[in-house]
Amino acid sequence: MRRIIWNKIAKSDYFKNIxxxxxxxxxxxxxxxxxEVKHIEFxxxxxxxxxxxxxxxxxxxxxxxxxITLFYKINDIAEVEFLRFWNNHKDIKKLRF
Length: 97
Hints:
single chain; alpha+beta; five-stranded mixed beta sheet; YaeB-like fold
């Protein structure tokens, strides 16, 4: 099983998304987002599935929902690093890892 690590930016993005959902949506929506992230984390830990390639070298992406995409990379056979939870309404040209 692979280990999942979260970089500082991914953690910050994650909590900003939760804060946004708490302010603008329901607790049910917040819990659904948290559950979706846990599910993707579980899938990536198992190592059975990797998601869509991107134009960034070694970086893959998972569209969590139409508003949020998770960008991650596989550091080695035993480690996956979460890079960003990107708001899809932002300009993708400004995406930095």
